[in-house]
Amino acid sequence: MAFGTAGVTGRTVITTLDNNGRDVMGLDTVAWKNPDSSIVSGSLLTVESNHFCVLKSRGAVLGVYETGQHQLITPDKPLIGSIVQGFFGSNSPWQYEAIYIQRSKLLVQNKGIATSKEMALMEYVVDYYIHVDTPEDAVKLITHMPIAGDRIPVAELAAYAGPVIEQSINQIVQLTPMESINERIHEIVELAKTHLTEFLAIYGVHLNDVKVLILPQDVRMREMISLRAFGLTEKEAAQMYLALKMTEKGLVSAPNAAAGVGFNVGTALGTLDIGKVSGLTQ
User: Fold this and answer.
1) Which of 21, 78, 167, 249 shows the greatest Cβ crowding within 10 Å of its Cβ?
2) If you classify domain 106-217 with CATH, what class do you get?
């Protein structure tokens, strides 16, 4: 896979498109570094409409490029420029980095565990959109978030933001009874959004919409709380939950469990205690 095409003069086109015309960044990459660092004067830098491109050399930012095609003129070093000219002619193959930054909104997701006031385990899922808005933001991103390998994936950004989200959610959830957590969901969202906005701003990343979902980790507890939503008391919800599970097993005594009454087997002579049925007792 190549990300540059040599021209008749030996100069290359630097781009994020592969040989099939597909964008290598996709929807799961915040930043991507072109693998070809031997950029020479006259190379053509192509920047798509949803990208920025930051050109670096030896750690220094030389420029930030927006949408379009840009011919690069790499600076010769004053003392040895003539030597380089002698070996390479007009082209000077210094080591440069072309780092592309995603401008489009990207979806990020964080998951984790919080504990309610009763120390019940609660799962949370936080979905939010982020984007890099300006050339200055692009420089902040590559300055404060190192690129391990050839890219910064969305998952790596989520890992950075994880502790901030966890702290924001636990700040409210730990003081709230489990059944009342959803009543405070708007407050939780606003707190998470405030802390996350401040944190991401350091990296030049802007936060857009935030959605938070919190629910009990235990599936049975989720079902019990759902039954409480119908106005049932804790005891009635427990009886109804038991009845539903018995119904799934095909047990005829499920209605009795829902009503909270005992179950007896009726006979022609009256009521027979199920415990005395032949074969069940000695």
Assistant:
1) 167
2) alpha beta
Tokens of residue 250, six digits: 């095909």
pTM of the model: 0.72
As beta bridge partners, residue 57 has 60
Domain coordinates in residue numbering, the chain: 13-102, 106-217, 222-276
d(CA 46, CA 94) in angstroms, rounded, equals: 19
In this structure, which amino acid lies at residue 275?
A: G
> How many angstroms from the chain centroid is the CA of residue 52?
22
Q: What percent of the chain shows pLDDT beyond 70?
A: 79
What is residue 35's predicted lDDT score, i.e. its pLDDT? Answer: 85
Average pLDDT of the chain is 81
Tell me the two tokens of residue 214: 């919190």
CA torsion, points 228, 231, 237, 243, in degrees to nearest 10?
A: -120
What's the gap between Cα 170 and its chain centre?
Answer: 19
User: Is residue 121 within 8 Å of residue 113, measured between CB atoms?
Assistant: yes
The residues pairing with 47 across neighbouring beta strands, listed in sequence order, are 68
Give the pLDDT confidence score for residue 31 in this predicted structure. Answer: 96
Q: Quick one: pLDDT at residue 94?
A: 56
* Ramachandran angles phi, psi of 134, nearest 5°: -130, 165
Q: Each residue of 214-254: pLDDT tens digit?
A: 988 877 776 677 777 677 787 877 777 778 888 888 887 87
pLDDT for 245 equals 80
Contacts for 37 with CB less than 8 Å, ≥ 6 apart: 95, 96, 97
What phi, psi does 188 have (nearest 5°)?
A: -65, -45
Distance set, CA 108 to CA 103, 169, 173, 200, 210 (Å): 14, 17, 22, 12, 10
